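Dear colleagues,

As part of the handover before I leave the project, I'm documenting each prediction I ran so the next person doesn't have to rerun anything. This entry is a single chain, and its sequence is reproduced below.
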Amino acid sequence: MAARSPVSLAYLLASVAVVGCVGVPAQEEKVARADLRAAGEKLRPPDGRSLLPELRADSPPEEFVRYAVFNNPAVAAAYFDWRASVEDIVQARSAPDPQFVFQADITNTLSSFMPGLMFDFMGSGKREAMGREAAMASGVARRAYISAVYNTAAEVRKAWIELAYVEDAARIREMSATALGGSLAVADIDYSTGRGMGTLADHVRIENELAKAQSELESLGDRRLSARLRFKSAMGLGPSDPDPVWPKAKLSPTAIPSPDELWRRAIAASPDLGRMRTMVEMAISGVEVARRARQPDFTLGAMVDLRTNPTLFRPLATLDLPIWRDKVAAVVAAAEARRDASLARVSAEQLNLAAELAQALYMVKEADRMIAFIDRDALPSYERAISTAEAASQSGVTNAAMIPEAEFMALSMRLERLGALRDRETAVTDLMLLTADIVPSDSPLPETPPHS
């Protein structure tokens, strides 16, 4: 046994060396890990410092967006999915684990005991191709993470717009109810004193308008509650979490580039289109893997008999024979079909992108036309009507109730303008999402590498 101890020792050392093997990452894996590290350092910095900004009621929308991106669990889930896909690259490009095998011959006694190792080897370049395919799959997960960040930002901005609209609409409706209350008081005086014509009809009409305004105020209260719940959810806060600082938002029109510039940005930076393009790259890598299925795989190994003297070595080998040509052809054809489907989806996504861009631009222009009409024609007309009613009331030509009624109609037009502005800013948010222009610059998004 002493003569065989060096063999046993060498065998043990070889086993330890095999267990400690580390593969060499390809360039695609290095890029994927660099992108992941860049995002992870911003999303979860190693020093553990808090990333959540201090929010105030007058904080700009970008601060609320930044808070949501760092706090929303949907973003964290997409990040960890991406992280898992990057780790999958190692599994795809690594060789299978070696197998420990042994054989023993036993009659009345143990006549031979032969432990050994078996290694699986793939055809030339197959592992590298599988690693590239996995790297492209991690690129798809990276794009999904970026989409999650953009969608979270868009949802926060839309909730912010809704909150701003509800607050301003409630204020205008309260002013409308006050104006109607004044008009109703004048109509009551006229009716009780018997002055004027048709004052009973005026009384009933104004009373109905006042009841309608008060009902709309109650509806706006419910709408405020719903908007706050939506905003809180978009910020990544659950129902049991403390309420965030509610923004004192004020709607104002956001400038947008020209349609040609918007289209250029959308084609270059759309998250959904970028994900489709990365899926094409993954499908192309899949075709390369499938075509290498024609190459045989093989295993090599060796066993050593620890009972014999001199020592007996037994080499072992197996070889796969990919003789079923129809099977290999089907594998390649399926991979090529997936590649063609990915290319078609890119074209379809470009068509969808153009349609969504056109629809959002139409909504912006339609809202701009409505706002321009109200500012240019409607509101000045009501202001002149109010001035005329005040002058006529002072001279005794007309009923004083006409003044608050004219004020009520002007306030109703301001409410129409506010609704048009809300619709415009919602459409602008969709445009910002399509052109990837909705996230603050210091959000946890890695720079797009040149290869993508």
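The beta strands are 99-106, 110-121, 298-305, 312-319. The chain has a mean pLDDT of 80.

All the best with the project,
I.
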